[in-house]
Structures are given as structure tokens and as C-alpha cells.
């Protein structure tokens, strides 16, 4: 029969690639109930574009990390080393963050893409982070929580390491009477680490950050932004796992508050316009999981709220300041 003949074409398919046999009625109601059996293969995970974007982001962060003025000692090699001391830590933080999501998704059987890194060579940071595409509404409440929270926690470990190690190589410098250029806002946690390293900073002095310390600062910013409890951000996943339907009202209130604050303080917060646009495009509503009734347990609940509270110490409303 035709169904038997068609199966011969798939004799060379490895068993690991065959996940089920799909039965299709070819002529329902016939005396022989003629059916065709087709082998269903899992979709291939695309790797070319993620790899190209990863390489492009490596080059983008390296380009940003190379100083504008070539050092007198060491020349081009010293400049390249300076760039690597920024690019390698930043890419390590982003890779750990995204692999935290990817490995947890694999653990729960949720199909996820490889991370798509976003290069931005003409920005002060060299990158806009990375994203992973996952199957929606697959997995229960615990799966959503673990996948959402694992990225920020995995990225936070190297972030703190690079902050501490990089500050050891940073130094104090005398601030010019009329500074020009660009300054970086400092979150509470970074201020604490700076005070632990330098003590009370004298008046008219500032910290000349080592590239590794600056990479740690970027890691704090990326982690805190991803933990914003709205929509499909990591914080949105965690908030929905904690509150379920109530998370929609909380996320909507936070989004409206953010819009109001940016408009009201446009001179200082206007730089968040792009982020606000992305949040509005995403929306505050989080889709349900495959099993919202699954309990999280006390440990996950405590860890979830503590992780969301990291925004208080890791976020700065004015990450970039232009001095005139």
C-alpha cells in the first residue's frame, strides 16, 4: 500500500530525530480506511544568524572598548588590550545571562532558540543586549519562573566579579573645573562597591574606571533592565509566576507610572523613550502558562521577590549624562 511504501523513504532517518508518527486520513469512509503515515521531525534550530550576531557583537563591544587616543606606551597593542578588557567581560555577562535561560528551557523541554545578540557599535555600550525566542505557553508555572529568573541570576554572578576585580584596577582622578563629555550614573550597589574600594571620595575627584569595572557597570544595568516586571521581560515572567492574573494590574500600573515620569522629567529621563516604546509595543499583559495551578513553593516565592527587589540597588534612572 502507499502508506507502507512512503515509510521506506525514511529508513535512513536517525531514531533520535523521529519524535512521533502522524497519521493522516487519505480517504475516510472507504472500505480499507486508507491512511498515510508520515514521520514528523523536530524543527531545526537555526544557528547561522545567532553565530553571526554573536561575532558582530564581539567586534562591536571591542570597537567601543578601544580608546580614542592610542596610548603612548604599547601603542596599538595596548589599545587592543584595553578593548578586550571591556569586550570579553561584557560578552561573558551577556552569554551567562542568555545561557541561564537556554539551559533551563532545555531542562523543562521548552524549545528555545539560540541567543540573538544585538550589536550597537555607535552606542557607548556597544550592544543592546541579547534575546531568546521561546515557545509561548509551554511549561507550567515553575518552568516559567525558573526560566525567567535563571538569566538574571546567572548574569549577576560574573557582573559582581567584574565589578569588584575591575575596581581594584581603577583609580581616582582630579575632575576638571568645567568637565565636558559624558558621565555615567551610578546605581546604589555600584556606589557601595566604590566606597568599599576607595572610601570617601574627596571633593573634585572622580573614579577613572578600568574597562573591566565599566563592563560590570553595564552588567548591573542590563540585569536591572531585564528585571523590570512588565510583559515578556524576565521580571515580567517572574512577576506572573508569583501573582498570576494580578500581575497584569501591577505591570499596567508600573508602565503608566513610567510613561508619566519620563514625560514629566523629559530633560533628565527623555533618553528612556526607546525603552518605553518597546515596553508599550510589548504590552503589560503576560500570557498564561500551561499549568497556572502548579504551586511554586516558599523557596521560589522568596527568591522571586528578592530578585525583583534587585532593581532598587542595581538600576539608575540616569545611566548616561552629557556634561556641558
Question: Which characteristics define this entry?
Answer:
324 residues, 8 strands, alpha+beta, 2 domains, two-stranded antiparallel sheet, globular, two-stranded antiparallel ribbon, 53% helix, disordered N terminus
Write a compact overview of the structure shown.
This protein has helices at 2-7, 48-65, 75-108, 141-168, 188-198, 211-226, 234-243, 246-264, 266-269, 273-282, 298-308, 310-314, and strands at residues 20-25, 35-40, 116-120, 126-131, 171-174, 181-184, 205-208, 320-323. The chain folds into two domains: 2-40, no CATH class; 48-323, no CATH class.
Describe the protein:
It is a single chain. This protein is α+β, with helices and mostly antiparallel strands. The chain folds into 2 domains: 2-40, no CATH class; 48-323, no CATH class. Helix content is 53%, strand content 12%. The chain contains 12 helices and 8 strands. The chain has a two-stranded antiparallel sheet. A two-stranded antiparallel sheet has the order 3-4. A hairpin with a 5-residue loop joins strand 3 and strand 4 (126-131). The longest helix is centred in the N-terminal third of the chain and has 34 residues, at 75-108.
